[in-house]
Sequence to fold (108 residues):
Amino acid sequence: MITLDDVKSIHSVDVYIREADKALDSLGYTEHSFAHITRVSDDTGRILRKLGHDKKTVELGRIAGYLHDIGNLVNRSEHSQSGAVMAWTLLSNLGCDPAEQATIVTAI
Fold:
């Protein structure tokens, strides 16, 4: 099973998040970098645990929360679609199980 730590270890994810935040900052948006995605990831995990989901579902939700804004690198408009495609590629390169990959990408 893929973990959030696996995703955090991908150098390109760090670059995409930093560069997306710079682009949004230039457009006048509030912070969308690591503080934001970490909070979304943590909140997602907390909500899924509270709803009684298993550890695997919680971890996949946390990953989706962490990756949910990477599409801002491409464009703010419809960034969820761009982000889902980007996440698909990143997760494929990690050798992610297709069912887990589908869950994460669908959540994004």
Notes: The two ends are 18 Å apart (CA to CA). The first helix runs from residue 4 to 8. Helices lie at 4-8, 11-26, 34-50, 55-67, 79-93, 98-107. The mean pLDDT is 91.
